[in-house]
Design brief:
The complex is a heterodimer of chains A (275) and B (153). Chain A is mainly α. Helices cover 41% and strands 7% of the residues of chain A. In chain A, the strands form three sheets. Chain A has a three-stranded mixed beta sheet. The longest helix of chain A has 17 residues. Chain B has one domain: Cytochrome c-like domain (Cytochrome Bc1 Complex, Chain D, domain 2, Orthogonal Bundle). In chain B, helix 2 crosses helix 5 and helix 4 packs across helix 5. Chain B starts with a helix and ends with a helix. Classes of the chains: A mainly alpha (275), B mainly alpha (153). At the A-B interface, helix 1, helix 2, strand 3 and helix 11 of A face helix 1 of B.
Protein backbone atom coordinates (compact mmCIF):
# COMPACT_ATOMS: atom_id res chain seq x y z
CA UNK A 1 0.00 0.00 0.00
CA UNK A 2 1.66 3.21 -1.16
CA UNK A 3 1.93 5.85 1.48
CA UNK A 4 0.77 8.64 -0.84
CA UNK A 5 -2.35 6.79 -1.86
CA UNK A 6 -3.29 6.03 1.72
CA UNK A 7 -2.72 9.61 2.82
CA UNK A 8 -4.99 10.92 0.11
CA UNK A 9 -7.69 8.45 0.95
CA UNK A 10 -7.50 9.45 4.62
CA UNK A 11 -7.91 13.11 3.85
CA UNK A 12 -10.86 12.45 1.56
CA UNK A 13 -12.28 9.97 4.02
CA UNK A 14 -12.03 12.43 6.88
CA UNK A 15 -14.09 14.99 4.97
CA UNK A 16 -16.72 12.44 4.25
CA UNK A 17 -16.85 11.17 7.80
CA UNK A 18 -17.52 14.62 9.15
CA UNK A 19 -20.67 14.71 7.04
CA UNK A 20 -21.90 11.28 7.98
CA UNK A 21 -25.38 11.16 9.45
CA UNK A 22 -26.04 9.27 12.65
CA UNK A 23 -26.59 5.58 12.84
CA UNK A 24 -25.64 4.61 9.32
CA UNK A 25 -22.49 2.84 8.34
CA UNK A 26 -20.75 4.54 5.43
CA UNK A 27 -21.44 2.88 2.14
CA UNK A 28 -19.62 3.93 -1.02
CA UNK A 29 -16.99 5.77 0.97
CA UNK A 30 -13.75 6.96 -0.52
CA UNK A 31 -11.76 4.81 1.88
CA UNK A 32 -9.82 2.08 0.14
CA UNK A 33 -12.09 -0.94 0.13
CA UNK A 34 -12.46 -4.28 -1.57
CA UNK A 35 -15.62 -5.87 -2.91
CA UNK A 36 -17.08 -8.63 -0.74
CA UNK A 37 -18.04 -12.07 -2.09
CA UNK A 38 -21.73 -12.86 -2.76
CA UNK A 39 -24.07 -12.89 0.27
CA UNK A 40 -21.51 -11.17 2.49
CA UNK A 41 -22.88 -9.04 5.37
CA UNK A 42 -20.79 -6.01 4.35
CA UNK A 43 -21.17 -4.00 1.14
CA UNK A 44 -17.49 -2.97 1.30
CA UNK A 45 -14.61 -4.54 3.19
CA UNK A 46 -12.23 -1.99 4.74
CA UNK A 47 -9.08 -2.44 6.78
CA UNK A 48 -8.83 -0.76 10.19
CA UNK A 49 -5.81 1.04 8.70
CA UNK A 50 -8.09 3.31 6.67
CA UNK A 51 -9.78 4.65 9.79
CA UNK A 52 -6.62 5.70 11.56
CA UNK A 53 -4.93 9.09 11.62
CA UNK A 54 -2.18 9.65 9.05
CA UNK A 55 0.43 9.77 11.84
CA UNK A 56 -0.58 6.26 12.91
CA UNK A 57 -0.60 5.02 9.31
CA UNK A 58 2.86 6.47 8.74
CA UNK A 59 4.19 4.54 11.74
CA UNK A 60 2.82 1.32 10.27
CA UNK A 61 4.11 1.99 6.76
CA UNK A 62 7.71 2.57 7.76
CA UNK A 63 9.34 -0.73 8.77
CA UNK A 64 12.04 1.14 10.67
CA UNK A 65 9.59 3.27 12.64
CA UNK A 66 6.93 0.59 13.15
CA UNK A 67 7.27 -0.36 16.84
CA UNK A 68 5.71 -3.78 16.11
CA UNK A 69 8.96 -4.82 14.42
CA UNK A 70 10.61 -5.23 17.81
CA UNK A 71 8.40 -8.33 18.20
CA UNK A 72 8.89 -9.48 14.62
CA UNK A 73 12.67 -9.32 15.13
CA UNK A 74 12.46 -11.27 18.40
CA UNK A 75 10.32 -13.83 16.62
CA UNK A 76 12.93 -14.16 13.90
CA UNK A 77 15.58 -14.96 16.53
CA UNK A 78 13.33 -17.56 18.14
CA UNK A 79 12.61 -19.17 14.76
CA UNK A 80 16.04 -20.79 14.64
CA UNK A 81 16.54 -21.26 18.38
CA UNK A 82 16.63 -24.93 19.39
CA UNK A 83 14.28 -25.72 22.28
CA UNK A 84 12.73 -28.86 23.79
CA UNK A 85 13.64 -32.55 24.13
CA UNK A 86 13.60 -33.21 20.37
CA UNK A 87 16.50 -30.78 19.90
CA UNK A 88 14.74 -28.85 17.16
CA UNK A 89 13.89 -25.29 16.22
CA UNK A 90 11.07 -24.10 13.96
CA UNK A 91 13.67 -23.78 11.20
CA UNK A 92 14.59 -27.49 11.50
CA UNK A 93 11.25 -28.35 9.90
CA UNK A 94 10.15 -25.17 8.12
CA UNK A 95 13.52 -23.76 6.98
CA UNK A 96 13.11 -20.38 5.29
CA UNK A 97 10.03 -18.72 6.82
CA UNK A 98 9.66 -16.24 3.97
CA UNK A 99 8.77 -19.21 1.78
CA UNK A 100 7.25 -21.78 4.14
CA UNK A 101 5.05 -19.21 5.96
CA UNK A 102 4.11 -17.10 2.95
CA UNK A 103 0.39 -17.92 3.10
CA UNK A 104 -0.03 -19.50 6.56
CA UNK A 105 -0.68 -16.17 8.24
CA UNK A 106 -3.66 -15.50 5.99
CA UNK A 107 -5.32 -18.90 6.47
CA UNK A 108 -5.78 -19.26 10.22
CA UNK A 109 -7.95 -20.30 12.05
CA UNK A 110 -7.52 -23.63 10.23
CA UNK A 111 -9.04 -27.08 10.65
CA UNK A 112 -7.24 -29.40 13.07
CA UNK A 113 -7.76 -33.03 12.14
CA UNK A 114 -6.46 -34.08 15.54
CA UNK A 115 -8.76 -31.88 17.60
CA UNK A 116 -11.68 -31.96 15.15
CA UNK A 117 -12.10 -28.19 15.45
CA UNK A 118 -10.47 -25.03 14.11
CA UNK A 119 -7.32 -23.74 15.82
CA UNK A 120 -5.73 -20.35 15.40
CA UNK A 121 -2.12 -19.40 14.70
CA UNK A 122 -1.10 -19.11 18.36
CA UNK A 123 -2.49 -22.59 19.01
CA UNK A 124 -0.75 -24.00 15.92
CA UNK A 125 2.59 -22.59 17.09
CA UNK A 126 2.10 -24.24 20.49
CA UNK A 127 1.04 -27.47 18.81
CA UNK A 128 4.34 -27.53 16.90
CA UNK A 129 6.20 -26.86 20.13
CA UNK A 130 4.63 -29.69 22.13
CA UNK A 131 4.28 -32.27 19.34
CA UNK A 132 7.31 -31.71 17.13
CA UNK A 133 9.81 -30.01 19.40
CA UNK A 134 8.81 -31.65 22.68
CA UNK A 135 9.02 -28.21 24.22
CA UNK A 136 6.66 -26.46 26.63
CA UNK A 137 3.76 -24.39 25.39
CA UNK A 138 4.20 -20.67 25.45
CA UNK A 139 1.65 -18.76 27.55
CA UNK A 140 -0.96 -16.67 25.79
CA UNK A 141 0.18 -13.04 25.48
CA UNK A 142 3.72 -14.02 26.57
CA UNK A 143 6.60 -12.20 24.94
CA UNK A 144 7.58 -15.36 23.04
CA UNK A 145 4.15 -16.27 21.69
CA UNK A 146 3.46 -12.69 20.64
CA UNK A 147 6.85 -12.47 18.96
CA UNK A 148 6.51 -15.75 17.06
CA UNK A 149 2.94 -14.95 15.98
CA UNK A 150 4.06 -11.51 14.79
CA UNK A 151 7.00 -13.01 12.90
CA UNK A 152 5.00 -15.76 11.19
CA UNK A 153 2.10 -13.51 10.28
CA UNK A 154 4.39 -10.80 8.92
CA UNK A 155 5.72 -13.36 6.42
CA UNK A 156 2.25 -13.28 4.87
CA UNK A 157 2.11 -9.52 4.60
CA UNK A 158 0.08 -8.52 1.56
CA UNK A 159 -1.52 -11.98 1.20
CA UNK A 160 -5.33 -11.84 1.10
CA UNK A 161 -7.17 -13.15 4.17
CA UNK A 162 -8.55 -16.50 3.15
CA UNK A 163 -10.07 -18.70 5.86
CA UNK A 164 -11.94 -21.88 5.08
CA UNK A 165 -15.54 -21.66 6.25
CA UNK A 166 -17.19 -24.62 4.55
CA UNK A 167 -16.97 -28.38 5.12
CA UNK A 168 -16.09 -29.29 8.71
CA UNK A 169 -15.54 -25.59 9.50
CA UNK A 170 -19.19 -24.71 8.85
CA UNK A 171 -20.66 -25.38 12.31
CA UNK A 172 -17.83 -23.44 14.00
CA UNK A 173 -18.31 -20.57 11.60
CA UNK A 174 -22.00 -20.48 12.55
CA UNK A 175 -21.13 -20.39 16.25
CA UNK A 176 -18.75 -17.50 15.63
CA UNK A 177 -21.46 -15.68 13.72
CA UNK A 178 -23.91 -16.12 16.59
CA UNK A 179 -21.37 -14.62 18.99
CA UNK A 180 -20.86 -11.68 16.65
CA UNK A 181 -24.53 -10.78 16.71
CA UNK A 182 -25.18 -11.63 20.37
CA UNK A 183 -25.79 -8.59 22.56
CA UNK A 184 -23.87 -8.84 25.82
CA UNK A 185 -23.02 -6.93 28.98
CA UNK A 186 -24.71 -4.22 30.98
CA UNK A 187 -24.59 -2.02 27.85
CA UNK A 188 -26.30 -4.80 25.86
CA UNK A 189 -24.25 -4.38 22.68
CA UNK A 190 -23.15 -6.86 20.02
CA UNK A 191 -20.01 -6.55 17.89
CA UNK A 192 -22.32 -5.77 14.99
CA UNK A 193 -23.84 -2.71 16.70
CA UNK A 194 -20.50 -0.94 16.58
CA UNK A 195 -18.55 -2.58 13.74
CA UNK A 196 -21.30 -3.33 11.21
CA UNK A 197 -23.95 -0.65 11.85
CA UNK A 198 -21.64 2.21 12.81
CA UNK A 199 -18.22 1.93 11.20
CA UNK A 200 -17.10 5.36 10.06
CA UNK A 201 -18.96 6.99 12.93
CA UNK A 202 -17.23 8.62 15.86
CA UNK A 203 -18.06 7.00 19.23
CA UNK A 204 -16.84 9.74 21.53
CA UNK A 205 -13.07 9.98 20.84
CA UNK A 206 -12.85 6.75 18.82
CA UNK A 207 -13.58 6.40 15.14
CA UNK A 208 -15.28 3.04 14.66
CA UNK A 209 -13.78 0.68 12.08
CA UNK A 210 -15.17 -2.61 10.84
CA UNK A 211 -13.24 -4.42 13.59
CA UNK A 212 -11.14 -6.38 11.09
CA UNK A 213 -8.35 -8.71 12.19
CA UNK A 214 -5.93 -8.53 9.24
CA UNK A 215 -3.42 -6.44 11.22
CA UNK A 216 -2.97 -8.69 14.24
CA UNK A 217 -0.86 -9.04 16.28
CA UNK A 218 -1.28 -5.28 16.38
CA UNK A 219 0.88 -2.70 18.07
CA UNK A 220 -1.51 -0.47 20.02
CA UNK A 221 -0.34 2.91 21.21
CA UNK A 222 -2.64 2.47 24.20
CA UNK A 223 -1.03 -0.87 25.12
CA UNK A 224 2.50 0.30 24.27
CA UNK A 225 3.09 -3.20 22.89
CA UNK A 226 1.68 -5.71 20.43
CA UNK A 227 -1.39 -7.69 21.44
CA UNK A 228 -3.27 -10.70 20.12
CA UNK A 229 -6.65 -10.78 18.40
CA UNK A 230 -8.13 -12.38 21.50
CA UNK A 231 -6.81 -9.61 23.75
CA UNK A 232 -8.67 -7.11 21.56
CA UNK A 233 -11.89 -9.18 21.72
CA UNK A 234 -11.59 -9.21 25.50
CA UNK A 235 -11.17 -5.44 25.58
CA UNK A 236 -14.26 -4.84 23.47
CA UNK A 237 -16.31 -7.17 25.68
CA UNK A 238 -15.08 -5.44 28.84
CA UNK A 239 -15.99 -2.07 27.38
CA UNK A 240 -19.61 -3.14 27.13
CA UNK A 241 -19.35 -4.42 30.72
CA UNK A 242 -19.64 -8.08 29.77
CA UNK A 243 -17.70 -11.04 31.13
CA UNK A 244 -15.24 -11.74 28.33
CA UNK A 245 -14.48 -15.26 27.11
CA UNK A 246 -10.96 -16.50 27.82
CA UNK A 247 -8.08 -15.96 25.42
CA UNK A 248 -7.62 -19.19 23.48
CA UNK A 249 -11.20 -20.33 24.22
CA UNK A 250 -13.28 -22.13 21.59
CA UNK A 251 -15.63 -19.13 21.61
CA UNK A 252 -12.88 -16.69 20.64
CA UNK A 253 -11.42 -19.04 18.01
CA UNK A 254 -14.89 -19.37 16.44
CA UNK A 255 -15.32 -15.60 16.55
CA UNK A 256 -11.88 -15.16 14.98
CA UNK A 257 -12.85 -17.57 12.22
CA UNK A 258 -16.04 -15.63 11.53
CA UNK A 259 -14.13 -12.32 11.49
CA UNK A 260 -11.69 -13.84 8.99
CA UNK A 261 -14.65 -14.31 6.66
CA UNK A 262 -15.84 -10.75 7.27
CA UNK A 263 -12.39 -9.57 6.19
CA UNK A 264 -12.02 -11.95 3.26
CA UNK A 265 -9.49 -10.62 0.76
CA UNK A 266 -7.98 -7.90 2.96
CA UNK A 267 -4.19 -7.90 2.82
CA UNK A 268 -2.40 -9.11 5.95
CA UNK A 269 -0.77 -6.05 7.56
CA UNK A 270 0.90 -7.58 10.61
CA UNK A 271 2.30 -5.92 12.57
CA UNK A 272 -0.30 -3.17 12.16
CA UNK A 273 -0.25 -0.02 14.28
CA UNK A 274 -3.46 1.20 15.88
CA UNK A 275 -4.31 3.73 18.57
CA UNK B 1 -9.05 17.45 11.13
CA UNK B 2 -5.34 16.83 11.34
CA UNK B 3 -4.94 18.74 14.59
CA UNK B 4 -7.98 16.93 15.88
CA UNK B 5 -6.39 13.59 15.04
CA UNK B 6 -3.19 14.53 16.84
CA UNK B 7 -5.17 15.43 19.93
CA UNK B 8 -7.00 12.17 19.64
CA UNK B 9 -3.72 10.27 19.41
CA UNK B 10 -2.42 12.03 22.48
CA UNK B 11 -5.55 11.18 24.44
CA UNK B 12 -5.45 7.58 23.35
CA UNK B 13 -1.80 7.28 24.27
CA UNK B 14 -2.55 8.38 27.80
CA UNK B 15 -5.35 5.88 28.03
CA UNK B 16 -8.12 8.42 28.48
CA UNK B 17 -10.02 7.38 25.42
CA UNK B 18 -11.79 4.17 26.44
CA UNK B 19 -15.33 4.40 25.20
CA UNK B 20 -16.89 2.99 28.29
CA UNK B 21 -14.62 2.70 31.28
CA UNK B 22 -15.82 0.44 34.00
CA UNK B 23 -16.72 2.12 37.23
CA UNK B 24 -19.02 1.79 40.17
CA UNK B 25 -22.69 2.04 39.30
CA UNK B 26 -25.94 2.42 41.10
CA UNK B 27 -26.10 0.11 44.10
CA UNK B 28 -29.38 1.35 45.51
CA UNK B 29 -32.81 -0.26 45.56
CA UNK B 30 -34.53 -0.57 42.23
CA UNK B 31 -37.83 1.33 41.82
CA UNK B 32 -39.61 -0.57 39.05
CA UNK B 33 -40.82 2.15 36.65
CA UNK B 34 -44.50 2.29 35.86
CA UNK B 35 -44.83 2.32 32.06
CA UNK B 36 -48.01 3.85 30.63
CA UNK B 37 -48.48 4.02 26.84
CA UNK B 38 -44.82 4.36 25.91
CA UNK B 39 -44.10 6.82 28.69
CA UNK B 40 -43.06 6.82 32.34
CA UNK B 41 -45.23 9.65 33.74
CA UNK B 42 -44.01 9.48 37.37
CA UNK B 43 -40.51 10.55 38.41
CA UNK B 44 -38.43 7.58 39.60
CA UNK B 45 -36.90 9.40 42.58
CA UNK B 46 -38.39 11.53 45.32
CA UNK B 47 -36.12 14.52 44.78
CA UNK B 48 -36.61 16.69 41.70
CA UNK B 49 -33.99 16.30 38.97
CA UNK B 50 -30.95 18.56 39.13
CA UNK B 51 -29.88 19.76 35.65
CA UNK B 52 -26.32 20.58 36.73
CA UNK B 53 -25.80 17.05 38.07
CA UNK B 54 -27.44 15.80 34.89
CA UNK B 55 -24.91 17.69 32.80
CA UNK B 56 -22.05 15.96 34.64
CA UNK B 57 -23.64 12.52 34.20
CA UNK B 58 -24.15 13.08 30.47
CA UNK B 59 -20.43 13.93 30.09
CA UNK B 60 -18.97 11.35 32.50
CA UNK B 61 -17.57 8.32 30.67
CA UNK B 62 -18.27 6.06 33.66
CA UNK B 63 -21.88 7.18 34.02
CA UNK B 64 -24.23 8.31 31.25
CA UNK B 65 -21.54 8.93 28.65
CA UNK B 66 -24.35 10.13 26.38
CA UNK B 67 -21.71 12.12 24.47
CA UNK B 68 -20.27 8.82 23.26
CA UNK B 69 -23.13 8.67 20.79
CA UNK B 70 -24.89 12.07 20.81
CA UNK B 71 -23.77 15.60 19.98
CA UNK B 72 -25.09 18.33 22.32
CA UNK B 73 -24.34 21.97 21.41
CA UNK B 74 -24.47 23.28 24.99
CA UNK B 75 -21.52 20.97 25.75
CA UNK B 76 -19.35 22.30 22.92
CA UNK B 77 -16.54 22.85 25.42
CA UNK B 78 -16.20 19.05 25.63
CA UNK B 79 -13.85 17.79 22.89
CA UNK B 80 -15.55 14.65 21.56
CA UNK B 81 -19.19 14.18 20.63
CA UNK B 82 -20.34 10.94 19.05
CA UNK B 83 -22.10 10.42 15.71
CA UNK B 84 -23.86 7.17 16.53
CA UNK B 85 -27.16 8.77 17.62
CA UNK B 86 -29.01 11.98 16.68
CA UNK B 87 -28.08 15.36 18.14
CA UNK B 88 -29.95 16.03 21.38
CA UNK B 89 -30.37 19.75 20.66
CA UNK B 90 -34.00 20.71 21.08
CA UNK B 91 -34.90 17.21 22.30
CA UNK B 92 -37.41 18.57 24.85
CA UNK B 93 -39.42 20.08 21.98
CA UNK B 94 -39.75 16.64 20.42
CA UNK B 95 -40.60 14.66 23.57
CA UNK B 96 -42.39 15.18 26.88
CA UNK B 97 -40.58 14.42 30.17
CA UNK B 98 -42.54 11.19 30.44
CA UNK B 99 -41.44 10.10 26.95
CA UNK B 100 -37.81 11.05 27.57
CA UNK B 101 -37.87 9.10 30.82
CA UNK B 102 -38.77 5.87 29.04
CA UNK B 103 -36.22 6.56 26.28
CA UNK B 104 -33.44 6.81 28.86
CA UNK B 105 -34.73 4.00 31.10
CA UNK B 106 -35.25 1.43 28.33
CA UNK B 107 -34.94 2.81 24.76
CA UNK B 108 -35.64 -0.56 23.13
CA UNK B 109 -39.26 -0.11 24.12
CA UNK B 110 -39.36 3.02 21.96
CA UNK B 111 -36.80 2.39 19.18
CA UNK B 112 -36.86 -1.19 17.98
CA UNK B 113 -33.42 -2.81 18.02
CA UNK B 114 -31.62 0.39 18.96
CA UNK B 115 -27.94 0.45 19.91
CA UNK B 116 -28.70 2.81 22.82
CA UNK B 117 -28.22 1.06 26.17
CA UNK B 118 -31.01 0.91 28.75
CA UNK B 119 -29.86 3.07 31.63
CA UNK B 120 -32.32 1.78 34.22
CA UNK B 121 -32.83 -1.90 33.56
CA UNK B 122 -31.45 -5.07 35.15
CA UNK B 123 -33.38 -7.87 33.49
CA UNK B 124 -32.86 -9.59 30.17
CA UNK B 125 -29.11 -8.88 29.95
CA UNK B 126 -26.56 -11.53 28.96
CA UNK B 127 -23.07 -12.24 30.45
CA UNK B 128 -23.02 -9.06 32.52
CA UNK B 129 -19.61 -8.57 34.15
CA UNK B 130 -19.84 -9.39 37.84
CA UNK B 131 -18.85 -5.84 38.77
CA UNK B 132 -22.12 -4.66 37.20
CA UNK B 133 -24.37 -7.64 37.83
CA UNK B 134 -27.85 -6.74 39.07
CA UNK B 135 -27.04 -3.04 38.91
CA UNK B 136 -28.47 -0.40 36.64
CA UNK B 137 -26.12 1.93 34.74
CA UNK B 138 -27.65 4.99 36.41
CA UNK B 139 -29.57 5.33 39.68
CA UNK B 140 -33.19 6.52 39.83
CA UNK B 141 -32.01 9.96 40.99
CA UNK B 142 -29.42 10.14 38.19
CA UNK B 143 -32.15 9.39 35.63
CA UNK B 144 -34.15 12.34 36.97
CA UNK B 145 -31.05 14.54 36.83
CA UNK B 146 -30.46 13.59 33.18
CA UNK B 147 -34.11 14.37 32.33
CA UNK B 148 -33.75 17.79 33.98
CA UNK B 149 -30.67 18.42 31.84
CA UNK B 150 -32.41 17.25 28.63
CA UNK B 151 -35.30 19.67 29.34
CA UNK B 152 -32.86 22.55 29.05
CA UNK B 153 -31.46 21.53 25.63
Amino acid sequence: MGRKVSLISTVLGAGLLALSTYGTAMADSTLKSIAPPANHPLSEIISGYEFRASETQDLQDDDFENPGYIWVDKGEDLWSEVDGAAGKSCASCHEDASESMKTAGAEFPKWSEKLQKPINLEQKINDCRTENMKADKWKWESEQLLSMTSFVRSQSRGEPVNVQVDGPMAPFFEKGKDLYYQRVGQLDLACSNCHEDNYGNQIRSDLLSQGQTNGFPTYRLKWQKVGSTHRRFKGCMKNVRATPYKVGSDEFVNLELYLGYRGKGLPIESPAVRN
Amino acid sequence: MKGFDVLKLALVATGLAAVFISGASAAETYNAPNIVENTIPKPLAKDAGNAENGRKIVINRKQGNCLACHAISSLDNQPFHGEVGPSLDGVAERYSDAEMRLIVVDPKQVFDGTIMPAFYKKEGLVRVNKKFKDKTILSAQQIEDVIAFLKAQ
